[in-house]
Amino acid sequence: MFSNRLIETIKSARKIAVLTGAGISAESGVPTFRGEEGLWKKFRPEELANFEAFMRNPELVWEWYNYRRKLISEVQPNPGHVALAEMEACVDSYWLITQNVDGLHRRAGNRHILELHGNIMRSRCITCGQKEETLDMFEKGELPRCTCGGIMRPDVVWFGEMLPSDILNQAFQAAEACDLFFSIGTSAVVHPAASLPITALNQGAFVIEINIEPTVISGKLHESIIGKSGEVLPQLLKDIWGIDIECR
Ligand code: BJW
Ligand code: ZN
């Protein structure tokens, strides 16, 4: 399935950085953002994932997040997540950078995780910034409030908002320092995350993409593997490090 060049390159890598997107969780049953399947009640993510939309209609935006919180709390990490967790022990340095807010990489066992876009199970007060980790699903028409009286919002990064600077800096440092970079299950259209594979490429890393279809960056990368991450990653782990996650 994999070329000798690919196997030798991965085997010799000592520092790996991985960027994941919604596609890694698709096989767990979490919908992606773009494409027909990414639509929720006919809304595009760009229409709901911004602060103006929240202030215009916080109940609607909370309804979307409640729906996703519930769904995420009921699904499990898939073999793609598990393979990425196993990979962490195979090399000297390993960074798992994710755009996902679903927490499935942590549940699969990864330790060095950089969550670029926050976490859906956390809320933050729009007035005082107080954070709260909760699994609560709020009743329709009821807005979650902070002890200060301010409205709570999901602690995620919306369009037009800055990513947490310490996490973003660590992600770029990992992309600059690694010798092998994986871009997995992301359409690579949302910046600054989409710049990470290109940064790694420009710094001399070997860059591999895993996706069910080509993306806007495929042509620039060393290798583009077309396939489901939940199938390709366990196979890579087996062929390269002899680890069979089905036997665990
Ligand atoms: C499989 C599979 C399987 C399926 N196996 N694969 C530079 C250029 C142009 C624009 C900008 C730029 N810099 C900044 C911008 C603006 C903007 C942006 O990027 N816009 C573009 C869309 C044009 N960026 C921002 O606003 C960011 N902030 C920022 O830059 O701040 C500085 C600033 C401020 C003000 C002005 C200017 C600059 C913030 C971006 C925040 C993104 N937030 C969201 C929501 C998070 C919360 C939540 O989850 O609700 O993040 S939007 C959504 O998109 C979410 C995702 O993390 C993100 C990326 O999506 P992802 O993961 O790639 O998913 P999909 O659905 O697009 O793709 C899934 C892929 O999986 C597909 O390719 C499938 O084929 C594949 N797949 N099944 C493998 N089984
Ligand atoms: Zn508050």
Task: Write a structural description.
The protein is of the alpha/beta class and 248 residues long. The protein has helices at residues 4-12, 23-26, 45-48, 51-56, 58-74, 79-87, 104-108, 165-177, 195-202, 229-241; strands spanning 15-20, 93-98, 113-115, 118-125, 131-133, 152-156, 180-184, 206-211, 223-226. The protein has a 6-stranded parallel sheet with strand order 3-2-1-7-8-9, with helices on both faces. The protein has a 3-stranded antiparallel sheet with strand order 5-4-6, with helices on one face. It is elongated and about 60 Å long. The two termini are 23 Å apart. The structure holds ligand BJW and zinc ion. Zinc ion binds next to loops.
Summarize the structure.
The chain is an alpha/beta fold. It has 2 domains: 4-30 and 77-117 and 163-241, Rossmann fold, CATH 3.40.50; 38-74 and 124-156, SIR2/SIRT2 'Small Domain', CATH 3.30.1600.10.
Uncertain segments: none
Question: How many strands?
Answer: 9
- Based on helices, strands and strand pairing, what is the structural class? alpha/beta
Number of domains: 2
Query: What proportion of the residues form beta strands (DSSP E)?
Result: 15-25%
Q: CATH superfamily of the largest domain, called what?
A: TPP-binding domain
End-to-end distance: 23 Å
Bound molecules: ligand BJW, zinc ion
Mean pLDDT, to the nearest integer, reads 94
Largest sheet: 6 strands, parallel
Text of the CATH class of the largest domain: Alpha Beta
The helix fraction, in percent, is: 25-40%
The CATH architecture category of the largest domain equals 3-Layer(aba) Sandwich
Described by the principal axes of the CA atoms, the overall outline is elongated
Oligomer: single chain
As for the CATH topology of the largest domain, it is Rossmann fold
